[in-house]
Amino acid sequence: MNAVIELLKQHRSIRKFRPEPIDQETVNTLIEAGQCAATSSFIQACTVIQVDNPDLRAELAECAGNQAYVATAPRFLVFCADMRRHQLACQMHGADMQSGYTEQFLTASLDCALFAQNVAIAAESLNLGLVYIGGLRNQIERVANLLELPELVYPVFGLCMGYPAQDPETKPRLPLDVVLKHDRYDDSQDHGAIASYDEQVLEYYRTRTGGNKEMSWSGQISGMLVKEARPHMLPFLQSRGFLKK
């Protein structure tokens, strides 16, 4: 174990922040750390929008399901998968860009996630807390319009960031044997492992300081996956030039 691994294993979502600001130089450093993440074929397909305007923050909080910390966190960033600059690169060389491929959507989205995770780890190393905001995709077209995103750019998620005003427990993760397989996919033992893990999660939810509930992991997942999962996403992405072929 070393300091980096210890930091990674201590991750918690933070939704309450102290009022202290995060200076722009720190934000810039975090974004530079994000840029150092792995990027597929050097495409560098992530753009980050730092949202400072309080009225805009309030609208984005509404888009995300009225998550108040989107409006009140010291910093709020929106991570966008961006193939727009690649269109410009092709134009600079008189090339006709072939866009709309599923592979391009995947590589741009993965680039964005890797970039953001670098930012998150760097932020936590500075004793900052954070929480990802996937809820922006609830009203993704409205978010895109508010941020004036052009074709070939879409908002993947937001990130609230600030100095923590809470100290929640670390949420238990799935057993290692469920997620680490050797040589082939074998889930023959997963049912029992997940049943045992459910007991851990039940105890976590029963005793955590941030609000109690009676819920197992498998119960939570089964309840989520019997519902529609943002069916508006596909037509939106296709309207923005993604997932056409």
Automatic annotation (TrEMBL):
Lineage: Bacteria, Pseudomonadati, Pseudomonadota, Gammaproteobacteria, Oceanospirillales
Ranges where the Nitroreductase domain occurs: 8-163
InterPro entries, alphabetized: Flavin_OxRdtase_Frp, Nitroreductase, Nitroreductase-like
Name listed for the protein in its UniProt record: NADPH-dependent oxidoreductase
This protein's record includes keyword Membrane: no
Keywords of this entry: Flavoprotein, FMN, NADP, Oxidoreductase
PANTHER family per UniProt: NADPH-DEPENDENT OXIDOREDUCTASE, OXYGEN-INSENSITIVE NADPH NITROREDUCTASE
Family listed: Belongs to the flavin oxidoreductase frp family.
